[in-house]
Amino acid sequence: MRREGIALVATLAVVVVIAILVFGTFFTTQLEIWTTRNDVTANQAYAVAQAGIQKYKTLAFQAFRYYLNNINAYGSELARYAQCGNLLTIGLDLNRDGIIAPGTDLPNGGTLTESVSFPDGSQGTYTVSLSVSGSYLTLRSVGQYGGAQATVTAVARVSSKGIFSNAIATGLGVGTLNGNLEIWGSVYAQATNPSDFVIGSSGAFKMHNYYTATQLAQLFGNNFTVDQIRNFLKLQAMEQRDMCATLSVTGGKVKIWGNSQIGDSSLPSGLNPTEGWNPKVDGVYVGSGTQGTQCNNVSEAPDVCVGGGANLYTSGGIGAFPYANPPAIPSLSGPCTNAGQTWRECLRNLAATQGVVLESGASSIPSSLVCNLNTILSGSTLTFGQTPITCLDGTPPNARGFVYTYDPTARQGTLTVYGTVNLRGYNLEFKEDVVVRYTNKATLFVEAKQNQGGNITLDGNLLPGQSFPDRDVLGLIAENTLTITGDTQNLPGSSPRQQVVMGLFYAGQRAIIQQNSTVFGTVVAREVCTSNNCNAGSGNTSIVQVPGLEFNLPPGFNLAPNTTSAFFGQLTYERR
Q1: With 60 as the cut, is the pLDDT of residue 30 above it?
Q2: Number of helices and strands in the chain (H, E)
Q3: Is residue 500 classed exposed, middle or buried when 0-12, 13-18 and 19+ CB atoms within 10 A define those classes?
Q4: N or C end of the chain: smaller count of CB under 10 Å?
């Protein structure tokens, strides 16, 4: 009996052990099946989330390009007149109807949910959310499939580099930037010699990323109060807290030397970074982004050469030029947006149809045009100074041409231009010690004829009559040289003043901006210099970019093709 009992117990023990082993094997197998199933489901959920993030990254970039091409229909006042303003702050207009409607479009701060089908017939869903702050865009996609969930987040930076969204844009180089030259805003060079320095800075050259209303008054020589300056500038352009200023060069190298300073190390007392003020420029982007201090042999020098006592204060540091399709510096002999025509031909046609053409040596002028240029002509130079002139075809406000009046007591002239005025074979001068106030959005196109004319000289002050750049903008196009002399202005009731000019300036060859001048707007030229010979800089020269000008171009400038390139760069990517 005892032996049989022991055998029974042993048998039962063996059975229990076998049962446990069988159950363990079954449980392990089921666990592996469940784990595999969960892995598959999780991967499917991730694939769904990934589909959402990829789709809406593409749609965001497409929307940004579309907004740039349809600026009047999209973008807030802040976005259009702040250099760092992101047009995507309104959200994504997926239907392109000018209205951001929740449910069909993706507003800033909003969400959209869509389905994704798999080959086996199963479905998942993703919910995409959009958040835009400054120039940064955050997309988050939450994918769901079979009870599993995955989240993918992407942060991208959105920017555009336009010819007219710079203080200086040049197709050859900016010569030597030295002396006391200061720039508020961006500098862009599209050069053709990658083994040479196309920009060289030394002396006390400075480049800034912000300005205040008080600094504006100083730039005007403290001859105008802040309230008076508001008559000249668009309200949103009265101060710029972060201009996203860049020094960008393609097809050449940059040398930053001497006591040059790119950006500022800190903000003045009273300005707070939490309120959007940023003293640092966005970055220096040249070629492939190589950098170093060995600059004696230019052919072996890095893309960006920094030395001497130069200081760089940047948010993005030194990097490669980011635009695959660099914006082109316009050329009169280059293409126009009208297929088969040059920019010169387009400008001439514009003047003939929506302005006037005044040609030196022409046997006659249209009978409907009331004009006697001889009253302001000396040699081959037309001068806006102390002599009034009317040169109109038709009656304002539907006239074409220009009217210039002069007040001898205030030494102030008023120039009203209707449309585009094409002056062929003439030079054009704005007289010293005269303040010329212009009205309307218009362009003066000065071109050469038989090697005569084609130059513009600004010897006096040139200011808008009303808010720049949204109401009054004057574009000056010189086929050859545009010179801003910097001559001291002696005006009634004040001490000698520094010269101030405001507008959009283009020179087919060389733009010379000499000492004691202040330029508000944009200077575009084959070569930009701060002296006649471009070998040495000059002192007390200031160039201030005015954000919003690129969206308020005077007639004819919009006919130059490929002047803006968009950039959409992913900064971070996170999966959870």
Answers
A1: no
A2: 5, 37
A3: buried
A4: N
